[in-house]
Specification:
There is one protein chain. It is globular, with a radius of gyration of 31 Å. The protein has an 8-stranded mixed beta sheet, sandwiched between helices. Strand 13 and strand 14 form a beta hairpin. Helix content is about 50%, strand content about 10%. Helix 18 runs parallel beside helix 21. By secondary structure, the protein is α/β, with parallel strands linked by helices.
Length: about 700
C-alpha cells in the first residue's frame, strides 16, 4: 500500500517521459535514415556526373578520384542533412500525425526532384561553360525568360531531361519510403517494438534500456548535425566548403566534389558578392594610392578625374579623324579559331583575310571583361572593369555618364553615337543603360524590320544591312558600337543555305569529335558570324574608305574543339583594328596585351588630335603591356589566375611565370579598386 501511495502520483510523469523518449528515438532514426538515403543518392549522382562528362577528364590517376569522391562525400553529408531536415520538418512541427506524414512525404518528393533537376542541369551547363553553376545563373535571371526557355528546349534537351528527371524522382521517392518503412509508420512500429522487446525484462532493467537508447540516439544526432555543420568535419579548422573543395588537379573532378545543391549555393553566394561588392572593400585612401601609382602622379588629389586624365601623345600613331568608326562586339567570337593549330577548320577565314591586309593590326591576347555579354557591354560602354557591380540593373540611378564612358568622349570628338543590338531593347535594360551612358541613339531588334533570327536576336546579315543602309542615309560622322547575336544558342541560322561546308569541317575535327553534331553546328555559327563581319567591313569600306573598324569578341568561354582548353584558348578574344587613315600592320607591338577597358583608349589615341584630353582607366593597346579581368591577368606569353599568380601558363598551356608579380598585384588592385569605387561612390575621394 505504501509503495502504491507514493508511486501513483509519479506514474503519469514517467509514462509521458517514456513516450517522449520513444518518439525522440523514432524521430532520430527516421531523420538519420533519410539523411543517409540523400547522401547515397548524391554519391550516385556524383559518379554519374563524372561518367557523363568523362571526355573532360585530364587524369585517370586513382588517388585523384579517391580524393574527389571522399571530399565530395564529406561535403554532401551537409547537403543530405539539410535535405532531410527540410523533408522531416512537417513531422516535428505536427507531432508525427498522419497528415504530417503525408506532407513530409510530399516535401521529400519535392526535395528529390530538386536534387535530380540540379544534376540534370549541371551536365549541359558544364558542357557550355567548362565549369559548374556560377553567378551566370543569376545573370540569366535578367534575360528574356521565353528566350531562355526556347534555348533550353532546342539546344539542351529540356523536354527529355525533364522527363527522365520526373521518372527518376518517382523511383527515388519510392525507394526512400521503403528505406524508412512505408508511409512513415516507423514511428509507431518503433515504439511498439521497444515496448514488446522490454516487456519480459524487469522494470529496473527497462529503466536502463530506454534512457540508454535515448542517449545513444542523442549522440548519433549530435554527431550527424556536427558533421553537417562543418561539411564533413568535426570543427571549422578542417571543414569542407565549396571554396576549398578543389582538392585534385582535374577541373571536372574538382567540380564533382560540389554536388548540385552546393554548386547552386556557390552560385548564389558569388552573385551576392557580385551585387554587394563583397570581397572588394576599397577605402578612398586605398583608391587614391592606387590611382596615383597607376597614373604616376602624387596622391594629393581628391577627384579620380585628376588621376585618370590622359593626353593623346604626339606620335606617328595618329591616323586622323575617319568619317565613321565601327566597334563590332561580336557574340562569342573567341581567338582560338584564329590560331594556326585550328586553321584546317577554315571557320575564321573571313577575319583572317582582314588580318592579312596591310592596313590591319591584330592583338591576339585580349581578356574579356567578364564571363557574359553584359560584362563586355559594360566594359566598352563605361570603360570600367568588372568589379562585382551589376551596372545595367538600375541605369536610372545614373544622373550622368561615368567620367570614363565611351559615348561622351566620342561626342566631344564630333561623332554622333549609336548603339546597335541585334536583340530586344529590354535585354539587360540595355537600351536604358546605354542611353544613360550618353549614346545619342539605340537601335534594337524592333528597329531591324523583317529577317530571320533566334529568340536572342536577328541574324547578323540583317543587322549589318540595316547599319549599312542607315549610314548611307546619315553620312555625318558617327561612332557605332555593334553587338551581334547570331553566334549564340539555340544556333538557328540555316547554315546549309549559307553554304557552310559541314563535311569539310567535320573531316578536320579530331576523330573523337567528328560525330558531335552540336559542336559542328556551333562551329558553323562561328563560320557564319565570321563571314558576316568580313562582308560588312568590305561593303562599308566601298562607301567610306576611311572608316575605322575595331573587331573584338565579347567572351570566349562557350565552345571549344578541345574538351580541356588551356586558359588562353578558353578565355581570350581577339582585337582587330583595320582601316582608318593610317592603320598599319605594325601599329601594335608584339607584346601588346589588353582587355575590354583598353579598347576605347586605343581608338581615342588613333583618331583624336595630339594633346586631346580624355579620361580613361584603361590604356591604349599601342603601349599597354598587361591586362586584368574578373578572373585572370595577363602579360606577354603569360596568363594566370588573378588570385594565384603562381598558376600562370604560357600561350601553349605550359607552366609560366608573371615577370613582376608585385607590380601585377598592384595593377589588379588599382583597376578593380578604381572601377568599384567610381561605380559605387563616384569620382570624389573626399566624400567618404
Amino acid at each position: 500500500m505504501t509503495n502504491r501511495k507514493f508511486s501513483a502520483p509519479y506514474r503519469p510523469t514517467t509514462k509521458y517521459a517514456a513516450q517522449a523518449a520513444r518518439r525522440f528515438i523514432a524521430a532520430t532514426d527516421v531523420f538519420c535514415k533519410t539523411a543517409l538515403f540523400y547522401w547515397l543518392l548524391l554519391a550516385v549522382l556524383r559518379l554519374l556526373f563524372v561518367v557523363s562528362l568523362r571526355e573532360y577528364l585530364t587524369t585517370l590517376e586513382p588517388h585523384q578520384f579517391t580524393a574527389a569522391f571522399v571530399t565530395g562525400g564529406r561535403l554532401s553529408w551537409q547537403t543530405a542533412c539539410y535535405c532531410a531536415a527540410v523533408g522531416f520538418a512537417p513531422l516535428f512541427l505536427s507531432f508525427y500525425n498522419t497528415s504530417a506524414a503525408k506532407i513530409a512525404a510530399a516535401v521529400n518528393g519535392a526535395v528529390i526532384f530538386c536534387l535530380l533537376t540540379l544534376f540534370a542541369a549541371s551536365i549541359p551547363y558544364y558542357e557550355a561553360f567548362n565549369g559548374g553553376f556560377n553567378q551566370m545563373i543569376f545573370v540569366g535571371a535578367n534575360e528574356d525568360s521565353w528566350a531562355l526557355l526556347v534555348t533550353c528546349a532546342k539546344d539542351y534537351g529540356l523536354v527529355w531531361r525533364l522527363t527522365l528527371t520526373t521518372a527518376a524522382t518517382i523511383l527515388s521517392w519510392r525507394l526512400l519510403r521503403k528505406f524508412i518503412t512505408r508511409n512513415f509508420a516507423f514511428f509507431t512500429a518503433t515504439s511498439q517494438k521497444l515496448h514488446h522487446w522490454t516487456a519480459p525484462i524487469n522494470n529496473s532493467l527497462r529503466r536502463i534500456i530506454l534512457p540508454g537508447a535515448f542517449f545513444l540516439r542523442a549522440a548519433l544526432l549530435y554527431g550527424a548535425v556536427t558533421l553537417a555543420q562543418y561539411g564533413g568535419a568535426w570543427g571549422w579548422e578542417t571543414e569542407i566548403t565549396w571554396e576549398n573543395a578543389g582538392v585534385t588537379k582535374d577541373a571536372l573532378l574538382n567540380e564533382s566534389v560540389t554536388d548540385g545543391a552546393q554548386a547552386l549555393y556557390r552560385a548564389a553566394e558569388l552573385n551576392r558578392r557580385y551585387l554587394a561588392g563583397t570581397g572588394l572593400n576599397y577605402t578612398a585612401d586605398d583608391v587614391r594610392l592606387s590611382a596615383a601609382a597607376l597614373s604616376g602622379k602624387a596622391p594629393v588629389y581628391d577627384n579620380l578625374r585628376q588621376y585618370l586624365t590622359k593626353y593623346v601623345a604626339a606620335n606617328d600613331n595618329y591616323v586622323g579623324k575617319p568619317q565613321h568608326i565601327f566597334l563590332i562586339l561580336a557574340e562569342s567570337y573567341a581567338n582560338w579559331p584564329l590560331l594556326p593549330k585550328y586553321e584546317q577548320l577554315h571557320i575564321a577565314d573571313g577575319v583572317k583575310q582582314i588580318i592579312a591586309a596591310d592596313n590591319t593590326a591584330y592583338c591576339p591576347l585580349v581578356l574579356p571583361n567578364g564571363i557574359s555579354t553584359v560584362s563586355a557591354v559594360t566594359g566598352i560602354v563605361t570603360g570600367l572593369a568588372d568589379a562585382n557591380l551589376y551596372l545595367t540593373s538600375n541605369p536610372q540611378k545614373f544622373t550622368a555618364p561615368f567620367a570614363t564612358a565611351a559615348a561622351p568622349l566620342m561626342a566631344e570628338l564630333g561623332f554622333h553615337t549609336n548603339f546597335w543590338y541585334a536583340g530586344p531593347a529590354s535585354w539587360e535594360n540595355i537600351k536604358d543603360f546605354v542611353l544613360a551612358e550618353g549614346f545619342d541613339d539605340f537601335y534594337g531588334r524592333g528597329d531591324m524590320g523583317d529577317g530571320e533570327g533566334s529568340v536572342w536576336g536577328i541574324n547578323d546579315e540583317y543587322l549589318f544591312r540595316k547599319i549599312l543602309r542607315h549610314t548611307t542615309e546619315n553620312p555625318a560622322p558617327s561612332f557605332n558600337v555593334i553587338l551581334t547575336a547570331a553566334n549564340h544558342s539555340p544556333y538557328e541560322v540555316d547554315l546549309k543555305t549559307r553554304g557552310f561546308p559541314a563535311e569539310k569541317v567535320r573531316a578536320a575535327l579530331p576523330a573523337s569529335r567528328r560525330n558531335d553534331e552540336t559542336l559542328l553546328r556551333q562551329l558553323g555559327h562561328f563560320w557564319y558570324a565570321d563571314r558576316q563581319i568580313q562582308t560588312f567591313v568590305t561593303s562599308m569600306r566601298e562607301q567610306y574608305p576611311d572608316s575605322l573598324f575595331v573587331i573584338v569578341g565579347d567572351h570566349a568561354n562557350r565552345y571549344h574543339v578541345s574538351k580541356t582548353p588551356d586558359l588562353y584558348e578558353q578565355y581570350c578574344v581577339p582585337c582587330i583594328i583595320t582601316g582608318g587613315l593610317g592603320v598599319t600592320r605594325d601599329l601594335l607591338p608584339a607584346d601588346a596585351v589588353g582587355s575590354h577597358i583598353d579598347i576605347m583608349p586605343t581608338i581615342t589615341e588613333l583618331v583624336a588630335p595630339p594633346g586631346f584630353a580624355y579620361i580613361s582607366l584603361g590604356e591604349s593597346l599601342v603601349t599597354n603591356k598587361r591586362a586584368v579581368n574578373y578572373l585572370l591577368c595577363a602579360e606577354k606569353n603569360a596568363i594566370s589566375s588573378a588570385a594565384d599568380l603562381q598558376a600562370a601558363q604560357n600561350l601553349d598551356g605550359e607552366p609560366a611565370a608573371i615577370k613582376n608579380a608585385a607590380a601585377m598585384r598592384d595593377y589588379i588592385a588599382a583597376v578593380r579598386g578604381i572601377s568599384f569605387y567610381l561605380a559605387r561612390y563616384g569620382e570624389n575621394l573626399s566624400s567618404r
